[in-house]
Structure formats: structure tokens, C-alpha cells
Amino acid sequence: MPQTPPFSGQLNTSSYNKNLYQSKEEGYPGLYYHDNNLASGSLEALIHHLVPTVDYYPDRTYIFTFLLSSRLFIHPYELMSRVCHLCMEQQRLGDPQADKMRVRKIAPKILQLLTEWTETFPYDFRDERMMRSLKELTHRLASGDEKDNGTNMGQMSQGLIRRLTVLSQYEEALVKINATAAERLTALKAKPQAAIQRDLLSICNDPFTVAQQLTHIELERLSYIGPEEFVQAFVQKDPLDNDKSCFSDHKKASNLEAYVEWFNRLSYLVATEICMPVKKKHRARVMEFFIDVARECFNIGNFNSLMAIISGMNMSPVSRLKKTWSKVKTAKFDILEHQMDPSSNFYNYRTALRGATQRSITANSSREKIVIPFFSLLIKDIYFLNEGCVNRLQNGHINFEKFWELAKQVSEFMTWKKVECPFEKDRKILQYLLTAPVFTEDELEVRNEKSAPSNAPEITYFTAFQSIRSSLMKRHFYAPISNLFYNILV
Questions:
Q1: DSSP assignment string, 48-103
Q2: For the chain, what percent of residues have pLDDT higher than 70?
Q3: Do 98 and 241 reside in the same domain of the chain?
């Protein structure tokens, strides 16, 4: 069997030797290869290609690509049920008279497939139907006399439960953080004179430290985004499926949405921090501070916080403060905007991103490994890849060449999100960044009326988001992701 194409950033979810058992004595009918790469296949054939046999174990990149993309055509719990059925039927796991030697050979491979699934796509197993199928199959595997199988299955189950528990704790923490932020904003609006509104500069006046704390938040929130969310955010009805879309009844991109909401919060926090001071001198100092924070974010490789800060400083309530801007040394800001220039499809940013990625690959320190992409552009790239190619060919085959490219992009993201932040946490700064009151553009405009006349001309700084917004809004978006982009871009 020809090898599937490897891609950079390939996941290392286990110690299993990926070079073992990649060949099959005869291919399942329904798979089509081009230049020795799997190009397309029927859903049934692709499922068969996923299931190990005594003499075959699927290529690691195929496992990731198929588990990532299959949810466009079949529910994960249905796929798990099919996999379990094939394992039981093909390998006669349910037959008490089955050859014990055969079971001993196949059991570790089936267990390895399940381990890769639970490690890379653990959120699939929040579905009770997934857990039932998993328990049924592992019970069959454990019925043999191999002690190692039982030990490995126990480790797999414990690891899955641990990941799901951590996810639940993270989601609960987000709810508390958002509630605290809402309470602080309500209190400030109820008693604007009595409430003492602190600013970020009173908490910390060191741009590098603030950039480090922003990086903590970014990496934590990135780490909880499942790779499947990039697919499920764009999922639409399968033309060969008479039922509704696989995910029309469930919200399956919540961690991705939470990350988008963080970007929005940071942008509005920057605008709020600049507009709240009454004196122009103080406002100018806050502007220069955030310019320095943005520069440190760029140096770290935190492009998402960098763009959020630029976005906040380009909001109308900030950009129209002509007298304040006249007191700011904008040379550094101009350089940063040049780096994020959207012309030529963000050529400057993409060059910087490639440089940061290469630095991460050859890193000698944990700090050099950090790559935090400009997230809305990453989603945009994946969206247009999804829109630009059909999921199914005219013969009904799944267009697997498209999903190789999709998996390549998502796999690179998976590498970035696994980096642990090397900087020491500052709880006070983190708490402020996550819960300080932020105002809408309209509220900030009202605030500015006291400091700048309403007819003052705007300062026309280049706004990267306007370019993305115009290019995106020209095309029809599937409703949920359209709302995400709208929240990012306005």
C-alpha cells in the first residue's frame, strides 16, 4: 500500500513506532491513489482503512486526517460504533473460540488506535454514546490473558478522564471569570463617581511583563481548542446525508469561540484604557505603553495579542483623538502596523510567522518555541480552504486530497498550542487583564465627548481588520462562524 504523505508538525501523541505495520496485503476496494498518495475514497473504504488488522496499522497522518475530517460525513459516535463492529467482526473478538494468538497480535494495535483517538480528540468522548462503544471494545480486548493490555487500557482510560476533567474545570473557570468581569462593569456603571477605576499602568508599568502575562492567557486558551473545532465550525449538511448536519443540534466550537471572545476583550480593553483618562498627557502615555507591549508581543511571537492591541488602537474612539496622537511618538507603532499589513494577503505577517515557526523548530530555549498565530487569519485560511474545494467528488468519493491540506494546517496549530509558557505568572496582572471593565465603542465615544469635539477629524491609521472584514463579507458565511468573524472584525 502506498504511503500517505507526511506533513510538518506531525503529532506525537504516543510512543508507538509509526513506521510499523503501514502496509496491507490487499487494499480495500473503493480507495483511489494519485502519485502514491491517497486521493479519494468512499466513506466505507476509508473506515476500513482506519481499522488495524494483524498485518496492518494505518499511517499516523492518515489516522489524524481521517478522524479530523470524518465528522463532516458521520457522527464521531457512529464512526466509533463502526470501528468497534469491524474490529469485532474481522478479528472475531466476540468469538470465545477465536485464536488466542491472533487476538494477542491484534489487541495492541486496536488499543493503539483508541489511544491516539482519545489523546488527540478527547472531546469526542464527552458523548455518552462514544464512551459506551469505547468501554465495550476495551472490555473485549481485556478479556484475553495479556496483562499488558489491561494495564495499557487502564492508562488510556485514566488519561482520557483526566483530560475531560481538566476541560470541565477550565470551562467552569471561564464562567467565573466572565461573571466577575460583568459584575465589575455593572458596579462601575452604577456608581461611576464612587467606584475607583484603576488602570493597567497602576498595576504594572513594565511592557515586557504585561506581554508575558498576555502570552500566558493566549497559550492557556489555545491549549483547550480541540483540532476538530476548526472543522465543526464550518460543518454544513452533507449532500448525501438525508439527515440534518452532524452538529446542527450541538454547540461544538465553544473553546474556539472563547478564544475569539478573548481577542475581542483585549481589543476593547486597550481602547478603554486609552479613553478613560481625562488628561491628554495621560492618554498619550497609555498609548505609548501599549505600543511597547505590542512590540514585546511581536518579539515573543505572540501575534494574536499584537493584532488585538493594534485593533484596539484603531477603533474609532481612539483613532479620532487627534490631539492625543499628536503627543505620541508613533514610529514604533507604524513599524508594527507595517508588519501586520494586510496587503498581498498579509505577506509581511506570514513572513514573520514563518520566521517564528523556524525559530520554534530550532529553539534552544522554551521561550523561543512560542508561536501564537493571528487567530482570525488562521480561521480565514481554513475557511477558504474548506470553501475552495468540494468535500465529495462527482462519483461520491470523499475528496481526501483536500483533507490532507486541512490536516496539515491544523497539525501545525497543534504543535504551537502544546508549548508551555516559560514566563512566571503574575496573578494580579492576569486578574486585571481578564476581569477589568471594558466599554463598547459607543460608550467610549460618549466618554470622549468631554475630551475631543465630535466633529474632530479622525486620524487615518491603517486598520488591518477592515481589509479582512471587507474580503470576508463579500462571501456567504455559515451562520455560526459568520458571527464569530463579525465579533472579531467590528
A1: HHHS-BTTB---HHHHHHHHHHGGGTS-HHHHHHHHHHHHHHHTTTT-TTS-HHHH
A2: 77
A3: no
**397 within domain boundaries:** no
Angle between helices 400-417 and 375-388 in degrees, nearest 10: 170
For residue 178, is it within any domain?
no
The answer for 288, left when phi > 0, alpha when psi is -120 to 50, beta otherwise, is alpha
Which distant-in-sequence residues (6+ apart) come within 8 Å of 293 by Cβ?
207, 210, 211, 214, 305, 309
Last residue of a domain, one of 159, 185, 209: 159
d(CA 10, CA 90): 30
The CA-based angle 467-469-474, given to 5 degrees, is 105
What pLDDT digit, counting tens, does each position of 158-178 carry? Answer: 999 999 999 999 999 999 999
Q: What is the DSSP letter of 206?
A: -
Q: State the virtual CA torsion across 372, 480, 469, 255 in degrees, nearest 10.
A: -10
CB atoms within 10 A of CB 490: 12
Handedness of CA 39, 42, 45, 50 (dihedral sign): positive
